[in-house]
Amino acid sequence: MRNVKLGITGPMSESNFGDFAMFINNVYELGVNEIVAFSYNKGFSQKIINDYLNSYKIKNVEVILKESLDGPEKTNKDINKKVGYLPFNAPTLTPIDILHQIDNYSELESNIKEIDVLVVNGGGYFNHLWNNSLWRQDMLKKIIAPILVANQLNKPIYFTGNSYGPFDQSEEFFNYIFNYIKNVRFGVRDKMYSNVYLSRIGIDSQKQVFIPDDLFIINNDLLNLPRKEFKDLSNIGKYIAVEIYYPLDELKDIIEDLKRFSDEIYSKYGYSIIFLPFDFNNGGMNQGEFLKNNLEHFYLYDISKTGYLPIEDVAHIIKQAELVFCTRYHALVLAVGQGTPVINMMKKVCNDHRYYFNKNYGILQYVFEGIQFNEMDFIKRDLVETLEYLEENILNVINSQKQVFNNKRYSENLTTLRNKRLNYLDNILNRK
């Protein structure tokens, strides 16, 4: 263990797999024993700390905000106004607005005085979607609060693998926040548009460092933990791993297509389905329960037993799958990181595909750098059309993608990307 005391902030306080799993993986990779975790949901954060990090010395500090000066009634009234398809934009907050809104400022300040460096965990939360959502904006401010206090105390601040943008009507907000921070390095997990968005608001390119996603390479100690569920996959036989969180009404509308797909891939190829809900309720679990009641040869990973989707389990299930069929970015990340063929259904955010295109094509671009590939083979848009295509062509899809993964350059890229990440983490510990 390194003799450095870290603070970590980021979206690790909820049961969404991609968010909390990046936090756990970063702690394992950094190899630092003493950590202050700044959370916005202390209960869930403490659960994953107890389950994964009980051998570490971790203090869990919840960021508490005072009620907005405008009050919830006025905020709700304003947020319900519409401009096109987007909610009305609340006034742009500055760093001083957020600092004054921290209810436990003294607690944050005293803890940040004790750390050597603050890490801003990876994710896709620095964008208009988060800032312009009433409940996400509250979480975003709680993530940002320790950054602002650390900046006041001149602590080094390192962002790990984040996406930035689209900023849209929130550009001025991020302009004021990011340009307030001085002793900082922005880890960027794509070579696409994040740099463009940061440059638009005046962030020096020398402060921007490309690194792969925080979950692209999972720590071996995590992978080797005893699995909690689906310990023996041999009784299932061949399967595809499915993660989708389309609205339940949309799935109900196409249930006959989904039934046909499930029946066809089993009768023709012997493929069952293991469904991986990345979160509770409409984040995946509701969809999984609905499909379990309607499809044959279907196995649901019930996260109500564990409280979340365990990292070691999902990594193993994806690695052993014939194909991953997913909507979420981190299902795609785990698949391409382990060489498993994958079809990613790109969802719209704020009525367009920019958010997911930057992330999803972004990872394909750097994983397959130097290899001829067609992104349309990996990223699809129409769900029913894709199901119909896979019913007849799934073996061709799998074999075609395996040729890409078997390319010597792919394994070389994995080594290069791992070294980039490890070098960046080492720079954090040495404050370079």
From TrEMBL:
Keywords for this protein: Transferase
Pfam family, one: PS_pyruv_trans
Keyword Transferase: yes
InterPro entries documented for this protein: Polysacch_pyruvyl_Trfase
Extent of the signal sequence: none
MF-aspect GO terms: transferase activity
Residue ranges constituting the Polysaccharide pyruvyl transferase domain according to the UniProt record: 52-344
Protein name (Swiss-Prot/TrEMBL): Polysaccharide pyruvyl transferase
Organism of derivation: Gracilibacillus orientalis
Lineage of source species: Bacteria, Bacillati, Bacillota, Bacilli, Bacillales
